[in-house]
Recover the amino acids of this structure.
């Protein structure tokens, strides 16, 4: 296991938090530009019981990025920009927006800026996330359960299995 297990697991946590436990996955994971790890890039499509789908793309070999999270729903769109290591590695353009959304039931407002700050570095971004998790753990109220960790890990392992076998894999794996 390589960078997919290391980095995509964070996105799988988010997908699980947003949509619940998926019922299947189809994926491609491989080395695209390097040979220093078992894999450097991967893409998975997760399917959910209600018909929803989530696409997870993760690569450790991109030089820069802008939009790091996109959510398309029945009422609108949310886009997060400059929220990962590649996008924090390059200064954002003037007027860059961290998080914006479009509500289809409020079209006349167009894209709405959530006025959140863009981290100046990957370290600043991680520090902001880790502080809350550590504080909750020290207080005896962890924000993530072992069951949730198992599901997220299963999502990643299922993607590896799909890529290895070249077919859709049912989740949770038996």
């Amino acid at each position: 296991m390589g960078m997919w297990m290391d980095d995509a697991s964070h996105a799988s946590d988010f997908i699980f938090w947003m949509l619940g436990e998926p019922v299947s996955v189809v994926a491609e994971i491989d080395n695209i530009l390097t040979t220093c790890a078992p894999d450097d890039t991967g893409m998975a499509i997760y399917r959910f019981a209600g018909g929803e789908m989530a696409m997870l793309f993760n690569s450790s070999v991109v030089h820069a990025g802008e939009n790091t999270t996109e959510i398309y729903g029945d009422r609108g769109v949310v886009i997060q920009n400059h929220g990962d290591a590649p996008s924090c590695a390059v200064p954002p353009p003037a007027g860059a927006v961290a998080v914006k959304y479009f509500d289809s039931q409020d079209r006349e407002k167009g894209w709405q800026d959530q006025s959140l700050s863009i981290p100046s570095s990957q370290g600043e971004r991680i520090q902001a996330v880790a502080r809350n998790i550590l504080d909750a753990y020290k207080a005896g109220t962890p924000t993530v359960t072992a069951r949730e960790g198992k599901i997220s890990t299963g999502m990643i392992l299922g993607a590896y299995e799909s890529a290895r076998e070249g077919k859709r894999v049912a989740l949770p794996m038996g």
In short: The chain has one domain: 3-170. The mean pLDDT is 91.
